[in-house]
Amino acid sequence: MTDPIDIARRCFQAYIDNDRAAIEALVAENFTFTSPLDNRIDRATYFKRCWPNHRYITGFQYRRLVVDGDSVIATYEGRGDGGRGFRNTEILTVRDGKIVEVEVYFGWSLPHPATPGGFVDS
Predict the structure, then answer these.
(1) Number of domains in the chain
(2) Using CA atoms, how far apart are residues 99 and 85, in angstroms rounded to an integer?
(3) Which of 25, 29, 45, 76 is deepest in the core (most CB within 10 A)?
């Protein structure tokens, strides 16, 4: 399968299913991952640093899945154990049926700590 949205969904599902073999099959050898905390880390570092988070993720609700060329823009609300929620946007670049790059933009905690129309003082 080479449909970028299908590949993105399968990647997120691997986290829910705690299925490392499934995600390893989707991630290219030359994979890089960038987030506010990580700057183009490689595949091995990603699996060491990020994959352990699968233990806390219980689901995703997609708010946006948009294909733009070989990229998928995915905005989702994730659910964690203990009822914790979060919202992120990721850009996954897919080539030849493999994810070669991910950029993550952390969103906010759910429920949002600010009241509607309000903000959080830092």
Answers:
(1) 1
(2) 25
(3) 76
Q: For 47-73, what is each residue's pLDDT tens digit?
A: 999 999 999 999 999 999 999 999 999
Asked if residue 116 belongs to a domain, the reply is: no
Does the pTM surpass 0.70? The reply is yes
Residue 30 lies in domain: 4-110
Q: Both tokens of residue 47?
A: 């699996």
Q: Please give the Cα distance from 105 to 72 (Å, whole number).
A: 14
Q: Indicate whether 40 pLDDT > 70.
A: yes
Single-letter amino acid code for the residue at 83: G
In a domain, 98, yes or no: yes
H and E: helices and strands count for the chain: 3, 6
